[in-house]
């Protein structure tokens, strides 16, 4: 098994989590911008999305650390991030519903 | 070395109960430890679906926020609604798909089918057609 390949895999995965954080921030910024300061569903959803972006960034950092313990040439295996994945899905769905309803 | 990632078809995974992905999501101890590269690739695929969902959501929001009126009344709302629904459908399917893939990898069995990608592609085609029609029938004096 190729050590370099393992390192690149980990890097891509960590990067993928960070890209998701950026996506939440982008949606949040769009919603906050569109709310024009009026307190309503749009503003709340936007702020929630920004917060979610921060939370996902934290998940990205934690996941990176988890993956760093993975030895690409060894037998170690890192458990699938079930909790993070579930949280991410719920946050995305909640945001979608808020936009649909708001 | 496991060939699960290279084989698109293969034996069906041992049946997980219908709602196992929801009720008993913990995959540790199920099947065998998969090749970590396939597991990470699965994780990245899931993250890509979530990003797709968020991009569709951003599109839906942008259409009503930033796009000037189409000539057809309610046009923007229709497009926005379609995009947001697509976003929800993608997000809703993504987690289960991730879970089922991980399950299949652990049992060296066939990966989930192409339902989500096909539905997504079809949805996008519908949105494109609607937007095309709106643009064509809006030709005329400006907004």
Main features:
heterodimer, A: 102 residues, mainly alpha, B: 143 residues, 4 helices, 62% helix, disordered N terminus
> If interface size is counted as residues with C-beta under 8 Å from the partner's C-beta, which chains form the largest one?
A-B, 40 and 42 residues
Helix/strand-derived category of chain B reads mainly alpha
The ordered H/E elements of chain A are HHH
Mean pLDDT across every amino acid position of chain A: 87
Largest sheet of chain B: none
The total beta strand count of chain A reads 0
Shape of chain A: elongated
Structure characterization notes:
The complex is a heterodimer of chains A (102) and B (143). By secondary structure, chain A is mostly helical. Chain A is 79% helix and 0% strand. Chain A contains 3 helices and no strands. In chain A, α1 runs antiparallel to α2 and α2 packs antiparallel against α3. In chain B, 62% of the residues lie in helices and 0% in strands. Chain B is elongated and about 60 Å long. At the A-B interface, α1 and α3 of A face α2 and α3 of B.
């Amino acid at each position: 098994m190729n050590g370099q390949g393992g390192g690149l895999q980990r890097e891509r995965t960590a990067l993928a989590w960070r890209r998701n954080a950026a996506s939440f921030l982008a949606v949040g910024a769009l919603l906050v911008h569109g709310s024009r300061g009026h307190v309503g569903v749009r503003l709340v959803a936007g702020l929630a999305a920004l917060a979610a972006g921060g939370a996902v960034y934290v998940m990205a950092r934690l996941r990176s650390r988890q993956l760093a313990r993975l030895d690409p040439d060894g037998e170690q295996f890192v458990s699938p991030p079930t909790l993070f994945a579930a949280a991410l899905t719920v946050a995305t769905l909640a945001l979608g519903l808020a936009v649909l309803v708001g | 070395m496991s060939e699960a990632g290279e084989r698109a078809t293969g034996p069906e995974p041992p049946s997980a109960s219908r709602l196992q992905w929801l009720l008993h999501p913990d995959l540790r101890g199920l099947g065998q430890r998969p090749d970590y590269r396939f597991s990470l690739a699965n994780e990245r695929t899931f993250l890509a679906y979530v990003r797709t969902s968020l991009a569709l959501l951003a599109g839906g929001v942008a259409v009503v926020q930033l796009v000037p009126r189409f000539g057809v009344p309610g046009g923007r709302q229709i497009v926005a609604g379609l995009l947001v629904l697509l976003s929800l459908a993608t997000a809703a399917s993504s987690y289960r798909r991730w879970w089922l893939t991980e399950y299949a990898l652990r049992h060296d069995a066939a990966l989930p089918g192409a339902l989500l990608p096909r539905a997504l592609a079809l949805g996008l085609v519908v949105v494109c057609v609607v937007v095309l029609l709106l643009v064509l029938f809006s030709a005329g004096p400006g907004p």
